[in-house]
Amino acid sequence: MPQDWNPQAYLNFATQRNRPALELLSHILHRPAQHITDLGCGAGNSTALLREVWQHAHITGVDNSPNMLAAARENLPSCEFIQQDFHDWCSDVPQDVIFANASLQWSPEPETLFSHIIEQLAPNGVLAIQMPDNLNEPSHRLMNEVAQLPQWRTTMQQVASRPNILKVHDSYDIFVKNHCRVDTWHTVYHHVLPDVASIAQMFASTALRPYLACLDETQQFEFQEIYIQKLQQYYPKQYDGQILLSLPRLFIVAEKVQAA
Q1: For a Cys staple, 79 with which of 59, 85, 91, 159, CB 3.0–4.6 Å?
Q2: DSSP-assigned states of every residue in 5-41
Q3: How many CB atoms lie within 10 A of CB 234?
Q4: Residues contacting residue 114 through CB under 8 Å, at least 6 positions apart
Q5: Domain residues of the chain, as ranges?
Q6: CB atoms within 10 A of CB 222
Q7: CA-based angle 105:129:84, to the nearest 5?
């Protein structure tokens, strides 16, 4: 089983991780809201953004990581935090805003999950989703390539890889069928990083976690070293010595409307 999430490692790249959360938030911040849930809240960096906008709302963060939730509770004592898988989460009160920043892409059953979450919305409530759409990027293709090397192939057979997110047209139809008005778009971020080792560090707390959790400390070091070597072929240094990490993301804002 993957080790629990590491809040400090995750927050080391808070600037990069907060950019899409801020963009998503900018599309809903004008809405009045008294009941808000942050699904997959992690260490609470996105929850903190919600608190800044809705200072008097009841805000609940939901996550399945004890370590992440401990960090979130310490940083945001005014918010409630619940340890639960978001597939099982049900709200006692209809929610005005449900925010899901870089979390729902882990679901193996997105159609069922999206429909379930919409049921938790109040009339005219909004579900705001942001998901990385980067499985075809070199940063992620190379993880699988390294995992298939002979020394790790057997060990990695049990690794649960992240599923592909739904195509835009398919996700749009799910929300419309569930009586939502939908706005959806793609954004590609080009994060400026000092070197390719920073890519490995950035994903060590997210996409690389399932691979590294199967290995001992020595093997983890070797895995990451090979991964970094392969990254160098795809992320050349820019004029200033930095590199650019392209990271596409899908955004969905779905407002629940009354059925005709």
Answers
A1: 59
A2: P-HHHHHTTHHHHHHHHHHHHHTTTTS--SEEEEET-
A3: 16
A4: 104, 127, 171, 174, 175, 178
A5: 7-256
A6: 16
A7: 65
Instruction: State whether residue 82 is helix, strand or coil.
Output: strand
CA distances from 142 to 135, 177, 182, 196, 228 (A): 10, 37, 34, 13, 9
Which residue type does 191 have?
A: H
Tell me the pTM: 0.90
Residues 6+ apart with CB under 8 A from 76: 44, 47, 48, 51, 61
Q: Which residue's structure tokens are 């429909």?
A: 115
- Interval 30-85: pLDDT, tens: 999 999 999 999 999 999 999 999 999 999 999 999 999 999 999 999 999 999 99
